């Protein structure tokens, strides 16, 4: 059996796109995935709905990338969100655009995206080798010559020759999907620099005991404001968040965490506006009406019309109002404290959850060591990178998958051009 032109390591979004792009240009491709199936992480993206991209311009994608956005200029011009939408529609997947430009399959099923990619992979005669773990990339005279491979449970020792290798192994987030960091130590072994590996789009831990008391409480249509230690607002958005036994989670928190770039070193403050539809004067008038109408009610009963059940004891505790206090006995000062807490419910943040709970890994291969057009290594000929392995990550909204598609396509086309030009001549092992 002849050796492939290209071996793609990692069967996620970037890896499958790279394999497709290379095969469309006529290269023979083997796609190697350590799991039993390709696309495992895609199954869980967008809560199982797969937010494939964002319906926006390349400039808007770059604006959603907090670091190294300029590095993506060429690949996003070549593979903008409009190209991604057309690509999936051509593969038979109907798409829809939701709030914030988020693009989903009309079916709301991530499996439709995975199946479409896999059908195209098979149509192009890409060899898919599942349960195959690449242990290292072989290099001879400064150029890729192949990979060392092991099947799950086997000892290392057999290899595969090729002209180019695309590493699309993902980061460290969600290790159950196969993102175990193998690519990171391979990258370092090959002489590349890894930059600042840490979690992004990750839940947050809080030292405040009231979070655990409200475990499971989801607040919808609230506004979260995050400030850095210089009191500068770095994030403000309306949406949903969740209290947990460790602190905070939910869509708003995941989005905010991507803006909190130095969680390990810097102090951030979170404030929740529980009633964003009402300004202070309107909310105060509402409080007065409720207190007047329920003058003989205990405060813990009266607040049931204004707050979820699990939140009421915390509101009373933090304002120093006894739950058994009658509404008609509430002082102006106590009402003021209650009003202020509704509009500014502060939560302390002590740090992020572990990286294996993050949706995205921030950091990765130093982009100055990678050609921004082809994704080829500047250190080793025939070595290409794609997806989360690179030191590029974005905010929520389909931007991270857009980066995966764009870098995957660039790496696939770059590897095909390199391999088909015959600039590397691997020997038999």
Describe this structure in words.
Helix 1 (13-24) packs parallel to helix 14 and helix 12 (312-319) crosses helix 13 (332-343). Residues 423-429 have low confidence and may be disordered. Strand 1, helix 1 (13-24) and strand 2 (29-33) form a beta-alpha-beta unit. The longest helix is centred in the last third of the chain and has 22 residues, at 399-420. The chain is 31% helix and 24% strand. It has a seven-stranded antiparallel sheet. A five-stranded parallel sheet has the order 6-2-1-10-20, covered by helices on one side. Strands 3-5-4 form a three-stranded antiparallel sheet. It contains 14 helices and 20 strands. It is of the alpha+beta class and 429 residues long.
Task: Summarize the biggest pleated sheet.
Answer: 7 strands, antiparallel
**Kindly, what is the distance between the CA atoms of the first and last residues, rounded to a whole number of angstroms?**
13 Å
Query: Beta-strand level of the residues, as a percent range?
Result: 15-25%
Mean pLDDT: 90
Instruction: Output the number of helix runs.
Output: 14
Helix amount: 25-40%
Report low-confidence residues grouped into runs of 5 or more.
423-429
Question: Tell me, what's the shape?
Answer: elongated
Radius of gyration: 26 Å
Secondary-structure-derived class: alpha+beta
How many strand units? Answer: 20
Strand order of the largest sheet: 17-16-13-14-15-12-18
């Amino acid at each position: 059996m002849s050796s492939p032109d290209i071996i793609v390591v990692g069967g996620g979004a970037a890896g499958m796109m790279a394999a497709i792009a290379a095969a469309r240009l006529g290269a023979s491709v083997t796609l190697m995935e350590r799991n039993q199936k390709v696309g495992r992480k895609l199954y869980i993206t967008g809560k199982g709905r797969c937010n494939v991209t964002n319906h926006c311009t390349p400039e808007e994608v770059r604006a959603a990338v907090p670091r190294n956005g300029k590095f993506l200029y060429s690949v996003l011009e070549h593979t903008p969100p409009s190209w991604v939408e057309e690509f999936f529609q051509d593969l038979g997947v109907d798409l829809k655009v939701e709030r914030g430009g988020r693009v989903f399959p009309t079916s709301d099923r991530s499996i439709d995206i995975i199946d479409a990619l896999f059908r195209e992979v098979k149509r192009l005669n890409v060899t898919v080798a599942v349960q195959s773990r690449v242990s290292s990339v072989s290099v001879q005279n400064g150029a890729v010559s192949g990979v060392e491979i092991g099947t799950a449970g086997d000892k290392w020792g057999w290899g595969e020759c090729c002209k180019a290798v695309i590493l699309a192994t993902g980061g460290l987030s969600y290790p159950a999907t196969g993102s175990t960091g193998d690519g990171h130590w391979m990258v370092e072994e090959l002489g590349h620099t890894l930059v600042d590996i840490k979690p992004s789009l990750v839940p947050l831990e809080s030292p405040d005991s009231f979070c655990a008391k409200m475990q499971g409480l989801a607040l919808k249509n609230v506004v979260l404001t995050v400030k850095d230690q210089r009191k500068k607002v770095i994030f403000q958005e309306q949406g949903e968040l969740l209290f947990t036994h460790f602190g905070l989670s939910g869509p708003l928190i995941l989005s905010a965490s991507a803006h909190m770039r130095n969680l390990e070193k810097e102090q951030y403050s979170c404030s929740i506006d529980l009633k964003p539809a009402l300004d202070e004067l309107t909310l105060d008038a509402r409080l007065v009406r409720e207190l007047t109408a329920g003058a003989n009610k205990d405060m813990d009963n009266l607040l049931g019309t204004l707050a979820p059940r699990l939140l009421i004891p915390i509101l009373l505790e933090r304002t120093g109002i006894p739950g058994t206090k009658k509404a008609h006995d509430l002082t102006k000062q106590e009402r003021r404290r209650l009003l202020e807490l509704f509009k500014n419910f502060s939560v302390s943040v002590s740090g992020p959850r572990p990286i294996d709970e993050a949706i995205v890994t921030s950091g990765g291969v130093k982009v100055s060591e990678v050609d921004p057009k082809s994704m080829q290594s500047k250190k080793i000929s025939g070595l290409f990178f794609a997806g989360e392995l690179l030191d590029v990550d974005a905010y929520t909204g389909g931007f991270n998958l857009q980066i995966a598609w764009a870098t995957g396509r660039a790496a696939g086309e770059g590897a095909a051009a390199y391999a088909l030009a015959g600039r590397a001549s691997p020997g038999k092992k």
